[in-house]
Amino acid sequence: MFQQDTSPALRVVLPIAAFHLFIIALSNYLVQIPVALFGFNTTWGAITFPFIFLATDLTVRIFGAATARRIIMTAMLPALLISYLLSVLFYEGAFQGWGSLSTLNAFVGRIALASFLAYAIGQILDVQVFNRLCQSRAWWVAPACSTVIGGLIDTLVFFSIAFYHSTDAFMAANWPEIAAVDYAIKLLVSLSLFVPAYGAIMGLLARRLSPART
After folding, report:
1. Which among 106, 148, 172, 182 would be 20 to 30 A from 8, CA to CA?
2. In this structure, how many other beta carbons lie within 10 angstroms of the beta carbon of residue 133?
3. Could you read off the pLDDT of 138-185 as tens digits, one per residue?
4. How far, CA to CA in Å, does 202 sit from each of 18, 60, 70, 135, 212?
């Protein structure tokens, strides 16, 4: 449908990478705010983070997989830094003051590392799956499958690295159940909201670009 750009310009990479960082920062803060959704207790972070999968899928479809990978590589290290800083500054949901940054917080550092690895692995896998399926006749197959698989790996990587044998006894004992609920909520939100949003955006772009190419 769209011509893919194999030599992405900075004007494409940097704004989308900045959007990724914004969603990561927002989700790291909102993950501390609980919300009841469809009868399950989760956090607002589970609702905002799937925006990244929507952005990645649109990037692959419009600009190509190479551009999407470059965006992920650009955002990876800043995402690690942002995850750590926000988690330290707003530890346990309350602002701890700038002085909290003067001491290394190993517990938060482990969570930040988990967030970094989950983002990198989940997004790269999302790109791979979407790129293989994007030529499917049904428009929804690629975004749905990439979201299901990428989101699953993202969730498993994050919770296992962050909380397996954690110093937080509750999370160490309950992270598999919490991860399952988190994934279920992300999946429900993504498939009911973000996959249709992908279809709507692609349809809008197709209508706008078609006259220019005839």
Report:
1. 148
2. 15
3. 889 999 999 999 999 999 999 999 999 998 888 899 899 888 988 998
4. 22, 12, 22, 14, 16
Which residues, in sequence order, are CB contacts of 112 under 8 Å at separation 6+? 80, 83, 84, 87
The reply to whether 2 falls in a domain is no
> 97: which 2 tokens?
């003051």
Please give the backbone phi and psi of residue 4, each rounded to the nearest 5 degrees, phi first.
-90, 140
How distant, in Å, are the alpha carbons of 11, 76, 77, 142, 178 from that of 149?
Answer: 29, 20, 23, 11, 18
3, part of any domain: no
The verdict on residue 90 lying in a domain is: yes
Q: Check the CA dihedral 18-20-22-28 and report its sign.
A: negative
Residue in this structure with the two tokens 């999946």, named with its chain if needed: 187
Instruction: Let me know: does 198 contact 143? Beta carbons within 8 Å.
Output: yes
- Give the domain extent around 31: 10-213
**Higher pLDDT residue, 213 or 46?**
46
Q: How many domains does the chain have?
A: 1
Q: Judge whether 13 and 71 are in contact, CB under 8 Å.
A: yes
Measured over the CA atoms of residue 179, residue 79, residue 166 and residue 37, the dihedral's sign is negative
Q: What's the pTM value of the predicted model, to 2 decimals?
A: 0.82
For position 127, which CATH number holds?
Answer: 1.10.1760
Indicate the DSSP class of residue 91: G
**8 A C-beta contact, residue 71 and residue 11:** no
Residue 141 one-letter amino acid: V
